[in-house]
Amino acid sequence: MIFNIYLTNLLKAFSLALELTDGGLSRHHWRTAMVADRIGGQIGLAQGPRQNLLYAALLHDIGAASRWDEKNSLYSHKPITDLYWHAEEGYRLLVDSPLFKALAKPIRHHHDRWDGSSPSGLAGKDLPLAARIINLADTFEVLINDGRYILDQREDILAAIVRHSGSQFDPDLVEALGEAAYKDSFWFDLATPHYFDHFFHSLQSHGQVRLNIDGLLGAAEIFATIVDRTSRFTATHSRTVAAVASFLAGVKGYSDTETKIMRVAGLLHDLGKLTVPNQILEKPGKLTPREFTVIKQHAYYTHRILTQVDGFELIAEWAAFHHETLDGTGYPFRIPPANLRLGCRIVAVADVYAALREDRPYRPSMPLSDVEKIMLDMAAARRLDADIVHTLFAAGDTVEEILPGTCPA
Ligand SMILES: [Fe+2]
Ligand SMILES: [Fe+2]
Ligand SMILES: [Fe+2]
């Protein structure tokens, strides 16, 4: 299996997951990245730093993604208690990643003020250039009102930015933004959803970074961490599913690369959970029917985000069809059993196993003997693939030994 995944394409898709709220998919990171890139072009930024600027802009609020309240405040103009918390959290998520460590500092300082009055104390050109650009592009983007004709907003938005030149923003960059915004087309591009595809595609056509499977695993690990942090009950859920699913893939004769792809699918299977408010994920009592439908939408969003990545078709299926069943009544696509690939059925088994072995708000972790009984019953009712369930329990202790966290016996 040959991998041909562009990092830009991957981050373009994954950045959608960062701002998933009850409004579904929005475009804050895309638009911030586009404005940042225009500023970078205006000041003649070289290709390497301009590429990193784009990646950092696409991920800039990554530290807020696990917290529903935090991201809702960021995108709905509500006052936010601590503007710097999510920036620091973003830094911590990325600083040890071989692929993303260059983005950690720009993200850490993306709300730092030019005048040095932010908690870091850094001022002026001591702040990373990419951080100064993202600060400006991010504020600019939040000022755009999608309900108003874009050119009617031009003067007000530019005036609001200029007012903070030299205090919040680097004055040279404010000037560069003003020059880029001189063209009407700059504004029309911001207001034309289809333009984004053209923008990102044009970036990919000139020598962008391509990922191998290990790079992809590194990126998937970070997003798995974000998803698992949405609830203290799922602290290792995605990693457990990844470990069990890749183990089963190995037993079923998948190649080394396919087994790694299975790990990626396991790490990302619940990506769409970022659309579910933390209060629902952590609710101790019984869920209302409405809350349950909100939970169920996660598999839909996992699929819709992953299919945005060219070359991810198989990963999207393996990851997102984990609640589809062999009687055709699963969700959210009600896939007919004949179309449910082995890889999807493996992730489904791994997911149920992981969930039953973990504590939940409404019950403690279950002992292995109970887990086995429940899963055999589910297989008999065609909710899970019987052959894979038997493979799992035939492996005995081996499975428990590969789990990332400690489960009670
Ligand atoms: Fe931010
Ligand atoms: Fe799920
Ligand atoms: Fe899951």
TrEMBL record:
Any single Pfam family the record assigns to this protein: HD_5
Stated name of the protein: HD domain-containing protein
InterPro entries: HD/PDEase_dom, HD_domain, HD_GYP_dom
Location of the HD domain: 234-356
Source species, domain of life: Bacteria
HD-GYP domain sequence ranges: 3-193, 212-408
